[in-house]
Amino acid sequence: MKPTPAELDAPWWDDAGFWHGLHTLLDPVRLPFFRTALAVHATAPPSLLDIGSGGGFVASGLREAARVTAIDISATAVVEARNAGVHRVAVADAQRLPFADGSFQAAVCSEVLEHVEDPGRVIAEAARVLAPGGILLFSTPNRTRWSRFVLIDLAQRWWPTRLLPHDLHVWERFVTEAELQTHLAANDLVIRRLSGIGIRPRYWWAALLASGLLKLGRISYAAAGKRIHLEVTDSPRLEMIGYATKAGP
Question: Element (H or E) spanning 245, and its range?
């Protein structure tokens, strides 16, 4: 099984659609991580730019922690973010942000770098619109053999296990940990924490069961995401999550 055209075309917040599965899968782990980072390193509530917001999963989840502006290259996604309660939205390219230097105290770039042609340019733009001392929150797959096996071979290519659109991820576009660190350092961003995301060991069987039920059509992508319990880990070999701060004046 892989997502049907109807599941892919469904609104981001539709429980029956594919995209809502990303919300139920990722947000229980990335949102608490981002909120904690903001509470420690930013003046509450900071002005925050969500770069590549999609339908507004992260932006809406951070509304109580920050004054959020969301941008995405898709006009449809921006409308969905607005409908989800994100009042400041714009259609814009992450590689050419329409904001002045130092406009925001915080920025988030979650599950975006792996989809753009020039991730270094996106990071440079994020750094440009951050004020000195601002914080950049991020998450993105790591380009490792493990991520190729899990996210490409198992999840997209192999018929018995594939659950994702075959072209959702291109492994060669993933950034490595070293590349990420180089891009951040080149833009005066100092990493404060770099961790990983993985499945909680005791939930592997639940994840396999959820995958099987999804392939049989017994549960939706949103329901499957709820059953696959992710956690922040010490190893970023599959997925990196972290934050960096911009050097002061």
Answer: strand 239-246
